């Protein structure tokens, strides 16, 4: 069993981005600038956005954080999105999800200019991904593909089971791995909460990507020997063992599943750091105008 070290690969990718930033600024292109809109005080979102700001600093990006209380009106949030759309100094921006229930997430996402949608959630970017056209691929699937590439994990002809069908991870992941590309060509089974006899699918899988959001959902009896497991879960659970009073749990029962794996991502330190690195990569592409000329 080999651990897939997402933290190490993320730092390598960030080093490459930092070198590229120095080059483009030396050639007269302005410093890349990433903005984030954060609504409310969700602990997970606070931690994630803070990590993004720190990563921007590490690679030489400018960063801007725009905060709103959780009772912000949809109208005010749409105005903030429009302001960022029209700010030429901002290359890309994100609206941190989830949003409060009174705000229509789809309405907010669709208001983002596709050329600045570095999270890759806008329907135009999703559609371009499906058609294999240049686009911003959503950061978590993009990061997972990068991990598979770095660890030289064969995908062609393999059976991949994706557990979870969210538009952020599960659905785009199933599309990317089924594409006729070097890091694709899998036979993909997309499973979800309504899938019957899930174990019959997971036991046949060469690669499992678990993105259900249920801590320790995937058990040892659900996987075969030699499987590759990518754990996307990051659920905060109460813990007396940490100063913060919580710890992160993945979707995989690591102690049971890991001994049967050829490769597995840990939580934390697996997919999470790659999501941030991939967001930075998309922002660099936005600054260089490589996707939307």
Give a structural overview.
There is one protein chain. With 293 residues, the chain is an alpha/beta fold. Helix content is 38%, strand content 17%. It folds into two domains: 31-113, Rossmann fold (3-Layer(aba) Sandwich), CATH 3.40.50; 139-272, Rossmann fold (3-Layer(aba) Sandwich). Strands 1-11-8-7-5-6 form a six-stranded parallel β-sheet. Strands 3-2-4 form a three-stranded parallel β-sheet, with helices on both faces. Strands 9-10 form a two-stranded antiparallel sheet. The longest helix is centred in the first third of the chain and has 21 residues, at 6-26. The N and C termini lie far apart (44 Å).
Descriptors:
Rossmann fold; alpha/beta; 3-stranded parallel β-sheet; 293 residues; single chain; 17% strand; 2 domains; 10 helices; 6-stranded parallel β-sheet
Strand content: 15-25%
The geometry reads as globular
The CATH topology of the largest domain comes to Rossmann fold
Low-confidence stretches: none
CATH top level of the largest domain is Alpha Beta
Which superfamily, in CATH terms, is the homologous superfamily of the largest domain?
A: NAD(P)-binding Rossmann-like Domain
Kindly report how far apart the N and C termini lie. 44 Å
Q: Could you state the oligomeric state of the chains shown?
A: single chain
As laid out across the biggest beta sheet, the strand order is 1-11-8-7-5-6
* Whole-number total of structural domains: 2
**Mean pLDDT across every amino acid position:** 94
SSE string:
EHEHEHEHHHEHEHEEEEHEH
State the secondary-structure class. alpha/beta
Number of helices: 10
CATH architecture of the largest domain: 3-Layer(aba) Sandwich
Helix content: 25-40%
Number of strands: 11
Rg measurement, Å = 19 Å
**What characterizes the major β-sheet?**
6 strands, parallel
């Amino acid at each position: 069993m080999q651990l897939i070290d997402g933290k190490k690969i993320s730092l390598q990718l960030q080093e490459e981005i930092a070198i590229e930033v120095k080059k483009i600024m030396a050639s007269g292109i302005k410093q890349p600038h990433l903005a984030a809109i954060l609504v409310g005080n969700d602990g997970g979102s606070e931690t994630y956005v803070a990590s993004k700001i720190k990563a921007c600093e590490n690679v030489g990006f400018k960063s801007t954080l725009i905060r709103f209380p959780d009772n912000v009106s949809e109208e005010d949030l749409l105005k903030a999105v429009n302001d960022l759309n029209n700010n030429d100094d901002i290359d890309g921006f994100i609206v941190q999800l989830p949003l409060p229930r009174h705000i229509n997430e789809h309405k907010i996402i669709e208001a983002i200019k596709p050329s600045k949608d570095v999270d890759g959630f806008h329907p135009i970017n999703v559609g371009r991904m499906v058609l294999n056209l240049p686009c911003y691929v959503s950061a978590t699937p993009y990061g997972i593909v990068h991990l598979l590439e770095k660890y030289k994990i064969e995908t062609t002809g393999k059976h991949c089971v994706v557990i979870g069908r969210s538009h952020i991870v599960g659905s785009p992941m199933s599309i990317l791995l089924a594409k006729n590309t070097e890091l694709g060509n899998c036979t993909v089974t997309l499973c979800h909460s309504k899938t019957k006899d899930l174990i019959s699918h997971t036991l046949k899988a060469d690669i499992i990507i678990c993105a259900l959001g249920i801590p320790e959902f995937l058990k040892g009896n659900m996987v075969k020997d030699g499987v590759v497991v990518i754990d996307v879960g990051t659920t905060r659970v109460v813990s007396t063992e940490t100063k913060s009073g919580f710890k992160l749990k993945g979707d995989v029962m690591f102690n049971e599943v890991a001994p049967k794996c050829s490769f597995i991502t840990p939580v934390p330190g697996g997919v999470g750091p790659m999501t941030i690195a991939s967001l930075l990569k998309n922002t660099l592409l936005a600054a260089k105008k490589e996707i939307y000329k």
